[in-house]
Amino acid sequence: MSADKNSFYVNENALCESQDIGSNTRIWGFTHVMKGAKIGSHCNVGEHVFIENAAVIGNGCTIKNGVAVWNKVVLEDDVFIGPYAVFTNDLVPRSFMKRGEESFLKTVVKQGASIGANATLVCGVTVGEYAMVGAGAVVCKDVPAHSLVVGNPGRIIGKICFCGKLLDLKQWCSTCECFLYKNSKEFAISKITRLEEATGT
Fold this sequence. Notes:
The chain is mainly beta. The chain has one helix spanning 185-199; strands at residues 9-10, 15-16, 26-27, 32-33, 38-39, 44-45, 50-51, 56-57, 62-63, 68-69, 73-75, 80-81, 86-87, 107-109, 114-115, 120-121, 126-127, 132-133, 138-139, 147-150, 155-159, 172-173, 178-179.
C-alpha cells in the first residue's frame, strides 16, 4: 500500500505523517493522518479529517469533511463516509481510567458500504457489503449486507442495490432492471453509465 509521496496528493495545509498511502489518493486541507495509518489508492480524504495511527482504509474510499477515523476502525474498499459521521472505539469511556487499546472494540465497514452524514457507529459493529446507513442514524448492532438502516436506534427498513437504489420486496432494482442475486457492482456501474449517456446527465 505504501507509495512515493509524488504519487499521492497532500494539501499544503494538511499534516500527513504516514508513509503508507496508496497512489492517486488525495488528502485535503486541515486533515491529520498519523504515522502508521494505512490508506489505499484512489481515495479522497476531505478537509478537517483525523485518521489515527492504527486505522486502516482500503482502496477507492471517500471520506467527507469532519470525520475522525480512530484506531481499530477498518474501512474496506469503495466505502463512502458522509460528512461528520462518527466512529467510536471505546464502549465504556472514562477520562480518569486509562484501559489501553487492548480494551477497544473493532469496527468494520465492509466493501462498498455507505455511511450517511452525521450517522454514529457505536464501536464493535460490522456494516455489511454495500449496505447503506442513513443520515443521522445510530448503529448499535451489525448491519447485514445490502441493508438500509435509519433512525435511532438504527433499524433495517429495506434492501439496497449495488447502485444505491431501494429494492422492492422481491429484491428487484428498477434502475438496474435486475434482481439482486443476479446483479454485481460492475453491472450496476455499466447500467448507470449507459443511462447517464442516454439522458445526457
